[in-house]
Amino acid sequence: MSEKDKSEEIEEIISDIENNVDANSDNADTVEEQQEEVEELTAEEKLQEDLGKEKDKFLRLFAEFENYKKRTSKERIDLFKTAGQEVIVSLLPILDDFDRALKELSKSDEDEMFKGIELISNKFKETLKNKGLLEMEVKQGDTFDAEVHDAITQIPAPNKKLKGKIIDVIEKGFTLGDKIIRHPKVVVGN
Q1: Which long-range contacts (CB under 8 A, 24 or more apart) does 52-55 make?
Q2: Torsion sign (Cα): 139, 145, 150, 152
Q3: Which terminus of the chain has a smaller tally of CB atoms within 10 A, N or C?
Q4: Which fold has domain 134-190?
Q5: What ranges do the domains of the chain cover?
Q6: Region of residue 57 (phi > 0: left; psi between -120 and 50: alpha; otherwise: beta)
Q7: pTM of this prediction?
Q8: DSSP string for 32-80
Q9: How far are the Cα atoms of 14, 16, 17, 19, 156 from residue 7, in angstroms, in the given order?
Q10: pLDDT tens for residues 58-107?
């Protein structure tokens, strides 16, 4: 080989190397761009994931707030239903006194006094009824229910039909709305 051939061969090799270097640098740039895209995608994916977490957190907080609103609304309604419960419970002994007074006045000859007390008693009962107070209907012969009645004593039943049943009602029971505020006090036969 001549020197000219050698120099041409060297130039060809150098040009091949330069072409390879350019190609490699283009490939390196492409690889770097791909890596940046992957990094951007992962950053985008991270943002999407963070967004999903925040949405979930928001939905949970919203649901919790809705439950809170429902619960407080229900409590407020219950409070309004039984707002005067303490006052009404404190008036029940007066209602009992009216009943005892009417019972005693019916035995006397004082018709005018009886009518006056009866009018006041009826007005008082109607006012309490308008506020939601209802008398529990309990009479002799009803079945005793420990959830509803308050047994103050047991006596031998006068007959077999009254065994385990109510023999006498000592004190009336009352409900305010759906809630029992005073259980009727009864005597039970055994």
Answers
A1: none
A2: positive
A3: N
A4: Nucleotide Exchange Factor Grpe; Chain A, domain 2 (2.30.22)
A5: 1-81, 83-131, 134-190
A6: alpha
A7: 0.57
A8: HHHHHHHHHHHHHHHHHHHHHHHHHHHHHHHHHHHHHHHHHHHHHHHHH
A9: 10, 14, 15, 18, 136
A10: 999 999 999 999 999 999 887 877 678 888 899 999 999 999 999 998 88
